[in-house]
Amino acid sequence: MKFLAKLAFAAAALAAGSVSAQTYPAKPVTMIVPFAAGGPTDVIARIVGEHMSRTLGQQIVIENVAGAGGTTGTTRAAQAANDGYTIMMGHMGTHGAAPALYPNLRYDPTKDFEPIGLAAGTPILIVAKKAFPANDLKSFTDHVKANADKLNLAHAGVGSVSHSTGILLGSMIGAKPTMVPYTGTGPALNDLVSGQVDFMTDQIVNVAEQIRAGTIRAYAIATPTRSPALPDVPTTTEAGLPQYQVSAWNAMFAPKGTSADAVAKLNDALRKALADEATRKRLLDLGAVLPSADEQTPAWLGAFVAKEVERWNPVLKAAR
Ligand code: ASP
After folding, report:
1. What does the pLDDT look like over 284-304, one tens digit per residue?
2. Which atom of ligand 1 is least distant from the CA of 250?
3. Which domains does the chain have, with CATH numbers?
């Protein structure tokens, strides 16, 4: 009897194990956003996360873990249990630029994660407070060069997209403004709107609505063509700074060793979100560039991250 009971227990445990493996996710999934709520990475995570929750049948809960240009939250994600219940929204900063700027970074973007998929490309814009005394990019760069010591450039911490694209702009125009760090460009944008900081280089999804509302100025978009979301904003080429070309990206990652089954389910849910009309519209209205089918695989993202780390390393070391 005792033996039979043990056997029944073992069989039940085995069944439970296989059921939970088959039914991933069996509980809510935490998605770490390594910046403050309301900023570009957070907005993209919430828009795609909402639709992914429906496909997965489990809530995706956003946890904002801001600090050190996104590297605090990314370290947390790298070290989290690899059971599929903690993932993160990383980006060109955390998984591209950070290794160039943090000699003691506690994660390796190319080795410590399972790539899930690219969520959105996000062109960079040069934006300034409404009262900034320049009507076009040429007078903007002249003013920044002449007054760099009095001007504040807002950014989301060393290694973030806004920081790395900001120092790149400074090195191209030959100016070193005061760099003012925030926990994300959501709070930085609030201070730009109220005029407490002078300018920033930020991802389109954070600034499109304020540009359309006229509460901040946009001097140029750093892509080869204008954005359909902001057709009146000239490209850097049109505006006379063709060498400033930079578009960021946001993508989902799981800790290394997360099962292939969980990664496949998360990738499938991400693809379904990116194929959903209402989700696409929300992202496109904010100026995001949606990945093609080829760009939506985990393998594509893995190869892309390796290229990004290599691309940013010399550029940022030279621009510092
Ligand atoms: N990802 C942004 C940046 O790097 C910050 C944010 O999402 O708030 O500038």
Report:
1. 999 999 999 999 999 999 999
2. 1
3. 28-121+249-318 (3.40.190.150), 124-239 (3.40.190.10)
CA distance 209 to 204: 9
Residue 162 beta carbon below 6 angstroms from any ligand 1 atom: yes
Using most ligand atoms within 8 A of CB, pick from 64, 162, 308, 316 the residue to mutate for ligand 1.
Answer: 162
Task: Give the whole-angstrom CA distance, residue 248 versus residue 205.
Answer: 11
Selection from 151, 147, 135, 144 nearest residue 197 by Cα: 151
Q: Which of the residue ranges 206-215, 249-258, 268-277, 307-316 would you say has the lowest mean pLDDT?
A: 307-316
- pLDDT of 3 reads 47
In whole angstroms, what is the distance from residue 61 CA to residue 273 CA?
A: 16
Please enumerate in sequence order all residues whose Cβ is within 8 A of that of 285, keeping only pairs 6 or more positions apart, or say none: 208, 229
Q: The tokens of 92 are what?
A: 């060109």
Q: Whose CA is nearest to atom 5 of ligand 1?
A: 184
142-173 tens-digit pLDDT: 999 999 999 999 999 999 999 999 999 999 99
How sure is the predictor about 22, in pLDDT bands with cuts at 50, 70 and 90?
low
Task: Report how far residue 310's alpha carbon sits from residue 312's, in angstroms, rounded to the nearest whole number.
Answer: 6
Beta-carbon contacts of residue 237 (< 8 Å; ≥ 6 apart) = 224
* 284 SS3 class: helix
Residue of 32, 35, 89 to mutate, ligand 1, most atoms within 8 A of C-beta: 35
Find the angle CA(142)-CA(158)-CA(255) to the nearest 5 degrees. Answer: 140
Q: Is the CB of 186 under 6 A from ligand 1?
A: yes
Task: Say how many Å lie between the CA of residue 98 and the centre of ligand 1.
Answer: 13
Query: What is the atom index within ligand 1 of the atom nearest the CA of 36?
Result: 8
